[in-house]
Amino acid sequence: MMSTSESEDVTFFDMAVAICPECGTPVAESGWYGIDMGSDVQCFECGNAFNMKEHATDRATLSITLSKNQRIKRLGVEEKVDLE
Ligand SMILES: [Zn+2]
Protein backbone atom coordinates (compact mmCIF):
# COMPACT_ATOMS: atom_id res chain seq x y z
CA MET A 1 0.00 0.00 0.00
CA MET A 2 1.26 3.43 -0.90
CA SER A 3 1.41 6.16 1.68
CA THR A 4 0.60 9.76 0.89
CA SER A 5 3.92 11.45 0.49
CA GLU A 6 4.22 15.16 1.17
CA SER A 7 6.69 15.52 -1.66
CA GLU A 8 4.18 14.49 -4.32
CA ASP A 9 2.20 17.26 -5.97
CA VAL A 10 -1.11 16.44 -7.62
CA THR A 11 -2.94 18.52 -10.19
CA PHE A 12 -6.16 17.82 -12.08
CA PHE A 13 -7.34 17.92 -15.69
CA ASP A 14 -10.98 18.03 -16.73
CA MET A 15 -11.34 16.14 -20.00
CA ALA A 16 -13.98 14.59 -22.23
CA VAL A 17 -14.12 11.95 -24.94
CA ALA A 18 -16.25 12.19 -28.08
CA ILE A 19 -16.60 9.84 -31.04
CA CYS A 20 -16.06 11.27 -34.52
CA PRO A 21 -19.38 10.86 -36.39
CA GLU A 22 -17.53 10.36 -39.67
CA CYS A 23 -15.06 7.61 -38.87
CA GLY A 24 -15.74 6.53 -35.27
CA THR A 25 -12.37 7.59 -33.89
CA PRO A 26 -12.43 8.63 -30.22
CA VAL A 27 -11.16 12.16 -29.67
CA ALA A 28 -10.11 13.54 -26.26
CA GLU A 29 -10.41 17.24 -25.47
CA SER A 30 -10.54 19.55 -22.50
CA GLY A 31 -13.95 19.23 -20.81
CA TRP A 32 -14.25 22.97 -20.43
CA TYR A 33 -13.46 23.63 -24.07
CA GLY A 34 -15.42 20.77 -25.58
CA ILE A 35 -18.47 20.48 -23.32
CA ASP A 36 -18.95 23.77 -21.44
CA MET A 37 -18.04 25.94 -24.43
CA GLY A 38 -19.62 23.51 -26.93
CA SER A 39 -16.68 23.96 -29.25
CA ASP A 40 -16.05 22.18 -32.51
CA VAL A 41 -13.08 19.87 -32.58
CA GLN A 42 -11.23 18.24 -35.43
CA CYS A 43 -10.79 14.50 -35.75
CA PHE A 44 -7.07 13.74 -36.01
CA GLU A 45 -7.83 10.64 -38.07
CA CYS A 46 -10.11 11.90 -40.87
CA GLY A 47 -9.97 15.68 -40.39
CA ASN A 48 -13.73 16.01 -39.89
CA ALA A 49 -14.75 18.95 -37.68
CA PHE A 50 -17.67 18.20 -35.37
CA ASN A 51 -19.37 19.53 -32.26
CA MET A 52 -17.73 17.98 -29.21
CA LYS A 53 -20.76 18.34 -26.96
CA GLU A 54 -23.17 16.64 -29.39
CA HIS A 55 -20.93 13.61 -29.74
CA ALA A 56 -19.42 13.37 -26.27
CA THR A 57 -19.62 9.95 -24.65
CA ASP A 58 -17.80 10.54 -21.38
CA ARG A 59 -16.18 13.15 -19.16
CA ALA A 60 -13.78 12.74 -16.29
CA THR A 61 -11.35 14.58 -14.08
CA LEU A 62 -7.88 13.11 -14.34
CA SER A 63 -5.45 13.33 -11.47
CA ILE A 64 -1.86 14.01 -12.47
CA THR A 65 0.72 13.09 -9.88
CA LEU A 66 4.07 14.80 -10.25
CA SER A 67 7.43 13.54 -9.12
CA LYS A 68 9.75 15.59 -6.93
CA ASN A 69 11.26 17.24 -10.01
CA GLN A 70 7.79 18.23 -11.29
CA ARG A 71 7.60 15.62 -14.03
CA ILE A 72 4.43 13.66 -14.72
CA LYS A 73 4.66 10.47 -12.77
CA ARG A 74 1.21 8.95 -12.73
CA LEU A 75 -2.24 9.56 -14.21
CA GLY A 76 -5.48 8.46 -12.65
CA VAL A 77 -9.21 9.03 -12.90
CA GLU A 78 -10.18 11.22 -9.98
CA GLU A 79 -13.84 11.69 -10.73
CA LYS A 80 -16.29 10.65 -13.41
CA VAL A 81 -18.80 13.30 -14.42
CA ASP A 82 -22.18 12.21 -15.74
CA LEU A 83 -23.12 13.79 -19.04
CA GLU A 84 -26.71 14.87 -19.20
ZN1 LIG B 1 -12.92 11.08 -37.94
Describe the structure.
With 84 residues, the chain is mainly β. The protein has one domain. It is built from 2 helices and 6 strands. It has helices at residues 31-36, 52-55; strands spanning 9-19, 26-30, 40-42, 49-51, 56-66, 72-81. The strands form 2 sheets. It has a 4-stranded antiparallel β-sheet with strand order 2-1-5-6. Strand 3 (40-42) and strand 4 (49-51) form a beta hairpin. The relative contact order is 0.26. Bound molecules: zinc ion.
Brief write-up:
With 84 residues, the protein is mostly beta strands.
* Share of β-strand residues: over 45%
Structural class: mainly beta
CA-to-CA gap between the ends? 36 Å
Number of strands: 6
Helix content: 10-25%
- Extract low-pLDDT stretches: none
Question: Order of SSEs, N→C?
Answer: EEHEEHEE
Describe the sheet with the most strands. Answer: 4 strands, antiparallel
Helix tally equals 2
Bound ligand species: zinc ion
User: Which value, in Å, is the CA radius of gyration?
Assistant: 15 Å
Strand order of the largest sheet: 2-1-5-6
Overall geometry comes to elongated
What is the average of the pLDDT values?
Answer: 91
Overall domain count: 1
